[in-house]
Amino acid sequence: MQIPRHLAIIMDGNGRWAEKRRLPRILGHRKGVESVQRIVDDCLDLGIGHLTLYAFSSENWGRPRDEVDALMGLLGNFLKKELSQLQERGIRLVAIGELDRLPEATVKILKDIIAKTEHNTKMVLNLALSYGSRNELTRAMQSLARDVAEGKLRPDDLSEQDIDARLDTHDIPDPDLLIRTSGEMRVSNFLLWQIAYTELYFTETLWPDFSRDELTQALQAYSNRQRRFGLTGAQLDGTADSDGEGRH
Ligand code: FPP
After folding, report:
1. What strands, in cross-sheet order, belong to the sheet with 6-10?
2. Helix (H) / strand (E) containing 25
3. Model-level pTM?
4. Is 12 an active-site residue?
């Protein structure tokens, strides 16, 4: 089985998981945190190098106040409990998004864990928090525009690498595989620049029910894909003639 270097997940369906059981939505999120803990262990076990989880989007701030507060509470508790687990397992925590919009206490714990796990090398766990891709790209463009205005960069010299370097993900490879749970077929403002050549995998399973089995199925599907990055299959398997045409 092919193991992606970077797996990204849109963890969707917590609310529906709860509503189906006539439970408050927050219980779905609580179950969702249990799935997070399981999946982190599974990914480490499988040798996945980077795992990015879409935990809270820029748009999620618009949800009812009590749901936002409850999600922030879950995040705070998760982080408090997680430090020892991350250290024990050699996992490095990083985060992307407008972190300063999070509650002050959460930002403090987050920054503390990021600093303390900085030298862990077994896996990178990247939490997307208060994250939106258009917001990230806008901040990157602002930084580029400042450099142009100050004469540090000429517009014609601007490269894809210059844009990459200003994204929150600048030191993380692009995702190889993106999984979205709960049957929704969209990317919802997640890593729009970075997923240009990412394989997409959608499952009907709601995030609280996402299991190791489901993860294995997604990895099997990924293993069967041929990633061509705009080239032909023949070019990639070495059967192409010098003009790029496949011989077989
Ligand atoms: C989508 O479910 C999920 C979220 C908005 C947040 C994901 C958060 C967690 C799994 C818990 C917190 C995370 C960490 C890392 C501690 P939804 O509410 O949109 O579900 P619905 O589409 O069924 O309503």
Report:
1. 91-96, 123-131, 50-57, 6-10, 177-180, 199-202
2. helix 25-46
3. 0.94
4. yes
Cβ atoms 93, 117 nearer than 8 A: yes
Query: In the CATH scheme, what is the code of domain 6-132+175-223?
Result: 3.40.1180.10
Give the Å distance between the CA of 169 and the centre of ligand 1: 21
With tokens 């010098």, the residue in question is 242
Locate the domains of the chain by residue range: 6-132+175-223
Measure the CA–CA gap between 193 and 97, rounded to whole angstroms: 14
Q: Which tokens hold the place of 96?
A: 């992307």
Residue nearest to atom 18 of ligand 1 (CA): 15
Closest residue by Cα to residue 62 from 134, 132, 139, 140: 132
Q: What is the pLDDT of residues 19-46, one digit of tens each?
A: 999 999 999 999 999 999 999 999 999 9
